[in-house]
Predict the structure of Dipeptidyl peptidase 3.
Amino acid sequence: MSLPIADDEPPISMLLSAKGDNKDYFKLLDVKEKKYAHYMSKASQFGTRITLRQVSIESELIFDLLLFVQKNLDSNLINDQYKIEYKDYLNYASQFLSNLGNYKSFGDTKFIPNCSKEFLVDSILKNVKLDVHDSKVWEQFTNEYYNSNYDYKSHFKTLNDLIDQGIYGVNSNNLNLAQLGYPSLGFKSSYYSGNSVSSDDMILLKKEIFTKFNILPENTRIEKINDKTFIIHVASFNMLHPSNPSNEYPSGSVTVADDTVVSFKFGDHSREMQGIIKNLKLAKMYVANEVQSQMLDKYIEHFETGSGNAHKESQKLWVTDISPTIETNIGFIETYREPSGIIGEYEALVAIQNKERTAKFGEMVENAKEFILLLPWGAEYEKPDFNPPDFTSLEVLTFTGSGIPAGINIPNYDDVRLTIGFKNVSLGNILNASAKSSSKFPPSFIQEKDLEVFKKYQSESFEVQVGIHELLGHGTGKLLSEIDDNKYNFDFANLPIGLNGKAVTTYYKKGETWGSKFGSLAGAFEECRAELVAMYLITNRKLLEIFGFKTKEEQNNIIFAGFLQMARAGILALEYCSPETGKWGQPHMQARFSIMKTFLKHSSSKQFLKIVLDNETNPTDFHLEMDASLIETVGHECVKDYLLHLHIYKCSGDAENGTKYFIERSTVPEDLARLRDIVIKKRLPRRQFIQPNTVFNEETNDIIVKEYDETATGMIQSFIERET
């Protein structure tokens, strides 16, 4: 089995570049807006080490090592015979920084350098005077930003240990060790420490602690002392238990089922919390309105005290800050990577509104109610009132996290979404770059006759898909819930009809949430539902006209490119499913695979989508054939059926049947599993993004944006010049 090597010379793009024909969005801002963006970017970047620690126990140490090397390396001393290995080293460093860790943000699998350990030690580290066995060197790296909650020295006693285990440590015979997941199952997760945490442990904590005490778990980390003792670490600047009257955390330890004792410890990531708070306070001097000021106050309270409720209040304010020129969000947001699906990864966004594109999305929002009525479920499974959300197109300046999405629909708090609303943002410069093919890396598995249309309309179709996905995918549906004791948001005496033609028997009881009921599957399940809404509505001609596609030919090409792109994404997803365990490493790809499988195996015509092999017995290549004439009939019908099932299961809280159904639909059958090696062999490297740094010019009292070369060394230099 091949080892997971870092990508070779991936495409690298500079975010918010003003070079060439690109529009200089930052220059359009006034000085006050620039300063607000500047300090929010600084706050965002100060959380870099939090994400690194959440990815793996070794990531923060590797980060410091890579930056130290770059600051001190004389590349002219690298012998010509090692130029290829030096390039491989830079490929690794760039991919590591792009993912903020040594696990792929899209796939959750570890990657290692293609250069040899001998080259790294003898040519790179000796060049910068680092001896892998020198204890003083190790003290330097483990003490500068040492966090007592992360006991690096017990895992890596020397720099050589870090290189052997942290950087190169994968077993080709057991790649489970190179995947994120529950430690009790042999996977890795630094959301947990101490003894191996299991699914049963997290079920206990969700039920007996987080749900019972109404504690939001997003900014926590779990330490298992033994089978009966747990410490929940809370991210906060304050090291002591909060003493304010509204504090949501129980004081002292709590004894729960089976005499298990749970206590809370505050001050996780305290150094980073302090830096974030400092910059949020500076940003507050340049807010555009009172809502932003109050929002930052709640962010500051959240990072100071660890209060999850304070962060929820910040999101209520954020939703009401309509269409700001500078859009920001910060916190422990998405829960995809924590195995139980309830603890969030640190993320922070700073972006500038693209007013021209936003106008296009605004028209879709205005017509949203009309499009929602077209979806294949009744009013009992939809919110009674659709409050048109803010939907803006943004140009990303800063995004701290393990990976940058093309679109965002937040907050994730179910009650806030239901009572206050949510925002949709499309990250325009990410979306455009991600969807583009390059001459060096043409799209794989597309037959020759479809290439011209696919390449021409791929990016535009993806923009339509993301827009529908975020607004009408994540933005639709009502969870049937008990909102208080014996009070419901549905007619309990006349329960809605389920998929079997009978009244549903499940719902969300008081304290239960979508995440707590569906657990680790919630992310993939919801992403799939949103993708299906996009596929269901992308055939709507009025919606396509809103996006500027007026002629039937253009619309047909957008529809065809959208369906073919989804089928191709589903095939590419095979890389992210472990053939040994059946475990999916990426929720979006699990979703897309299941949709491709639906096209292939659950439509009424085998002609709709076909996989054509170059050799039936021993294939080495294949291509997709999709019948465009069947998209709006056969394709639309199979999408409708799949979407309706997922939607009803989610809204009614039927975790048992919903889980069974989705797992069956996303399980890789043998005839598709044999294509995985071909997919991996032809895998195209994932695009990386270099983020600019903002610099305050005291002489001009202005903020400038510093760009970097679109190379691996440019990526590394951007981090060297960033305060983390």
Notes: The first helix runs from residue 31 to 45. The first strand starts at residue 12 and ends at 14.
